[in-house]
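Data card: per-record layout.
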Amino acid sequence: MIAAGAFALAVLAGIAETVVAVTSRVAQQGFDDAVLTQVMVRGLIFAVALVCAWHLARGRRWAWWALLLGLGVVGLASMVVPMAAALADGASWSTAFEGDVSPAFPVIRALHILFVLAGVAVMLRPQVRASLGGQKR
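The structure for this 137-residue chain is written out next.
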């Protein structure tokens, strides 16, 4: 299923973002408990998202809802709202996209957002919803 693939790519982009951000932070400030906590929380979220994408590809309705609400609403908002607020406050696009973290970060973040949007767009198609069937799995 294309939607599951798009979400899997979004998760891979999220992992790449995390690697770039952690590498940059550790190079500047060193490794501490806050970095470890962020890596663990993000790792758990990414693992759950990949499991949901796998189940979506197998037609599980609950995975459709989990991905729509978890990545399509909460996850997307967690990326877009801070950027929009920074832009509204007069920040440059580079700053809003956290270009100060790394020159690669804005590109990875843009791909992350695009993969989530693609996954949601495909997932909302009537054919996808119909393929999930009416039974609970």
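Known properties of this structure: Residues 2-29 form the longest helix (28 residues). The chain has one domain: 2-131.

See the next section for split statistics.
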